[in-house]
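Hypothesis: this fold can be encoded by more than one sequence.
Test: take the structure tokens below, design a sequence, compare later.
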């Protein structure tokens, strides 16, 4: 039903300088796979096999990763090391990959709008790769959970989690009506509010399913917080004009946009995934 996923990957990753001076932050490895690899695996698990990247200058290694490396693969052919390519070969065999450039850094909303030609007139997923979401082996991925909700509500779905009040100013925050223990109908959204003005401690994280009317709303969205076109503002308009659901997902999310979160994710994945392979 939802076959496309959009990845805004044009950002500079300045919190990881000097590492990200020449390496995209999305290519930083959590143990043995880069962040963007985890993101595409999650999308594929939800049936989103057509991957659309909004990229920028110096991001060539992302497209190189999702391609065949003839020299290296020939070098390790027939050796035990070839097994290490099993997962990436599965992605290449089952998915398509398209790319466009975000020529100016005007915010997440602008990045999503830049990807319109790759998406078309259909609902689609959005994954921010530096929010790494891990679920138990017997649980659906976060995007697959959200696809199930989309089938039920047929409207935009955003992933949320509770965060400490002292950290709330780093997130988009919802004001919502509880439908069930983990589902809220969104009434309002605020981008990076001060802790004392936040409507809740329910923060939006980097997983979305958006209906295609979001593109018209983004075209009409004026620059907001930080002088950028905020995706939050367009989703807020969507909620007021129709319906947006927020979902407290099952799983664990790591903020790999921060050094602390990246190290925490690496340790967790090493102990709970890599060592069990």
């Amino acid at each position: 039903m939802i076959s496309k996923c959009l990845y805004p990957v044009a950002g500079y990753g300045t919190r990881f300088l000097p590492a990200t001076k020449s390496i995209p932050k999305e290519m930083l490895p959590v143990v043995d796979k880069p962040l963007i690899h985890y993101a595409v695996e999650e999308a594929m698990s939800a049936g989103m096999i057509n991957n659309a990247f909004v990229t920028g200058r110096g991001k060539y290694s992302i497209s190189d990763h999702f391609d065949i490396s003839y020299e290296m693969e020939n070098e390790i052919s027939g050796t035990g090391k070839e097994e290490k390519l099993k997962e990436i070969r599965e992605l290449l065999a089952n998915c398509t990959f398209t790319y466009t450039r975000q020529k100016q850094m005007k915010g997440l909303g602008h990045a999503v709008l830049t990807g319109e030609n790759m998406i078309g007139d259909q609902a689609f997923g959005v994954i921010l790769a530096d929010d790494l979401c891990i679920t138990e082996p017997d649980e659906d991925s976060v995007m697959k959970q959200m696809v199930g909700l989309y089938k039920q509500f047929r409207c935009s779905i955003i992933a949320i989690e509770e965060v400490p009040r002292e950290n709330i100013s780093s997130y988009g925050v919802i004001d919502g009506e509880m439908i069930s223990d983990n589902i809220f109908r969104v009434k309002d959204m605020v981008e990076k509010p001060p802790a004392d003005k936040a409507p809740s401690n329910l923060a939006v994280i980097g997983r979305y399913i958006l209906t295609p009317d979001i593109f018209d709303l983004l075209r009409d969205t004026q620059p907001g917080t930080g002088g950028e076109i905020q995706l939050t503002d367009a989703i807020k308009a969507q909620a007021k004009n129709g319906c947006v659901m927020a979902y407290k997902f099952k799983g664990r999310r790591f903020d790999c946009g921060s050094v602390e979160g990246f190290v925490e994710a690496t340790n967790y994945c090493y102990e709970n995934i890599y060592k069990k392979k």
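Residues 27 and 62 are 7 Å apart (CA to CA). Residues 259-272 form the longest helix (14 residues).
Hypothesis status: open.
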